[in-house]
Each structure stands twice: as C-alpha cells, then as structure tokens.
Amino acid sequence: MNQLNWKDVTPSFEQYEDILKSASSLPKKKFVELQPRLLATVERFKKIKGLTRVLVINCADNTVYRKFICDVVTDGLEPTIMTESLDAKLLFDRYSVDLKGDVVVEAGLLSKANGGYLILPANLILANPGYWPSIKSAIQGKPVNPLNVSPTRLPILTADEKEFDVKIIVTGDRNQLADLEYVDEDFSTGLTMYTEVEEDIHLSASNLELYVGLVNWICSEYGFPSLDDGAFQRLLLAGMRLTEDQHYLPLGVMWHCQLLSLAAQFSDQNIIDYVAIDKAIDDKYYRESYLPQRAVYDILDGQVIIETTGEQIGQINGLTVIDMAGHPVSYGEPARISCVIHFGDGDISDVERKAELG
Fold first, then answer.
1. Which of 43, 69, 120, 142 is 20 to 30 Å from 232 by CA-CA measure?
2. Does domain 14-29+202-287 have CATH number 1.10.8.60?
C-alpha cells in the first residue's frame, strides 16, 4: 500500500506568494475573458455558412450567463436578441384583425433578430416541442406564416409569409441539452455547433493572475469590497474544496457573488479579509448542517449503533456519502458495512466477457 505524504494533499501557495501579494492591484478580467473556448466557438459560428444554424452552449441556465453570451455575440453590426420567455409564440410574427377587417402585424423575436442572432433558453424548446419544427424551418430559410391572435375574425387581406436569416444560440445545462436530443436528433448532427462555458480553471501562475483578475472584476461589477492578500488565500482554499481538486479553481460567478456578499457582512472595514471569508463559510455551513447534525445526534443518542471497539469478521466501519433530494450539499454518515458472499457455479468466470454481454 502506498502512503501519501500530508503535503501532497494539502494546498500550498508558496510558489504564488508574489502574485497574492499584489492581488488587489492586478488588472480586472471579465468572466468571458477566461472563456477562450467560448470566444473561439462564437467567432467560428458567426463566420460559418451553410446549414449550421444553431449553436448549443452548455452553461448555467440563468439570465446572468445568457447576458455574458449576448455580450460576446454582440458586435454592433448585426442584431442580437435575447429572451427569457418560454412562450414560443413570441418568436413568430403575430397579426390581429380589427372590427373593420384590417390587419395589424406585430413583429416576433425572429423578425427582430433577422440578419443576426437569437439567444434563447433550452427550456423554451423543451416546453414547446410542437413549435420546434416551425422554428427549425424558419432558421433554415423556409417562409413562415404569421400567427393569427384573433382567429374569430377574418382579414380582408391575408398576411404575407416571411423568410428569416437568423442563427439561434441555445443555452442550458447538461441535462437540458441531453433532453433536446429527444426532441430532435438533429441537435447532435451538422445542424448545430457545440461548446461549453467552463466552470473551473487549472491552477498555474498565469491562470492564477487571470483568476485574481476575475475576482477583482466581480467585486467591482457587483459592488463588493476588495479583498486583501489573506482573503485571497482563504478564497482559494474554499474554491479548491468546491472543485474537490487542489489543482483547479472555480469560475462560477454566482458562487463567488454569494460568498463575497456574505463575507462583506462580516467585514468591519471597507475590505474583505481572511476572517470575513472564514465566517461567511461557517455561516453557510451552519445554514446547511441540519441533516448532518441529525445523523450525528442519532449516533450519540444511541438510535444508530456504530461499534468503535473490538473486531468482527466480515464487518468494518465505513463512511457513506448521502445525497438528499432538496439538500444543496452531500455529507458523510458512518455506517456498518458487512461482507456478503455469493456462491458461484463452480466454474472460472470470464468477468470481462460477461460484462460485455451485459
């Protein structure tokens, strides 16, 4: 059995001391500046011709990230429209007929984004799968009839069909994007391009400067106090714990905003220090620790028996990881693990072959 040195599993910042000492003075870096994969893909998508009309982006499903993507796409030359609505009818032109039979046309989002890009959540398609064939036809250049929102009245003149030159960008998390393939298999073909918003970054000297710049930008953008050197070290430790890897740091804006906002409440001065972030983390643990504490109390009260002395053949004490629906974090719970023996058929089993056969 190989034994690990304690230094191998304990984060060390000795090689980054110079960066951390000047952390507060490092230039700010916007979130999208730490997303080279996203920037490169958007640039390719804007230039691509032919039948590839959809860009699917795996990211957090919220308006904050869609706004980041909208800022990347927008160049001032082509219209870029973003929607948070799940009403698919808003995508198409709509017309109503007054009492005289005159037609009043209201432009839909496809018309507003004509010649440019339309950014929409994956949930819009998942909530309205029946409208997807019409959306797909529209972005592929087929003429589309406007929707009549007053079907009980007939127009004197019918509304004209309209062709669109629009590319759409669909955003959502991994589960939502997986469900899109059940709506249309073309989501995994040449109709679409795919990329991801990266939620972590590998720790190195150059990447640490980018990460510190991101934190400085978040503090400036959302009105939080700046961090001192000690606060950055505590933030790095918290980030490594979140990613469960001492070589990676999180990039999630929502996570940083919540932690820094809480830390600002524990800061007496106009600066966030090590103690403030530490108190914010303890406060978060206290709010989320009801279920883990109940498990501990059950053991202390004798409701759950965990033997800690003696020995028993075929039994060991272990730690199970509990994922409770509706609870934000996983937690460990002691358990007694018993060995179970299954008798075979007396032959030597080819495990790999049986696994292949299912």
1. 69
2. yes
Spell out the residues 6+ positions from residue 294 whose beta carbon is closer than 8 angstroms to its own: none
Q: Report CA dihedral (264, 63, 235, 40) to the nearest 10 degrees.
A: -140
The b/e string for 198-209 (b: 16+ C-beta within 10 A; e otherwise) is ebbbebeeeebb
pTM: predicted TM-score of the whole model, two decimal places: 0.86
Say what angle helices 253-265 and 63-73 make with each other, to 10 degrees. Answer: 120
Cα separation of 120 and 82, whole Å?
6
Determine the pLDDT at residue 13. 86
DSSP state of 270: S
**Tens digits of per-residue pLDDT, 28-49?**
999 999 999 999 999 999 999 9
Find out if CATH 3.40.50.300 is the number for domain 36-196.
yes
Written in H, E and C, the secondary structure of 159-173 is CCCECCCCEEEEEEC
Measured CA to CA in angstroms, residue 238 lies from 57, 159, 200, 282 at distances of: 27, 59, 13, 11
Q: What pLDDT was estimated at residue 350?
A: 60
Which residue ranges of the chain lie beneath pLDDT 70? 1, 6-7, 99-101, 154-158, 342-358
Instruction: Phi first, then psi: give them for residue 351, nearest 5 degrees.
Output: -60, -45
Indicate left, alpha or beta for 35 from its phi (over 0: left) and psi (-120 to 50: alpha).
beta
Domain residue spans of the chain: 14-29+202-287, 36-196, 305-358
Structure-block tokens of residue 143: 């003429």
pLDDT for the residue 309: 82
250, 243 Cβ separation under 8 angstroms: yes
Q: 350: which residues sit within 8 A by CB, 6+ positions away?
A: none
Distance CA 268, CA 270 (A): 7
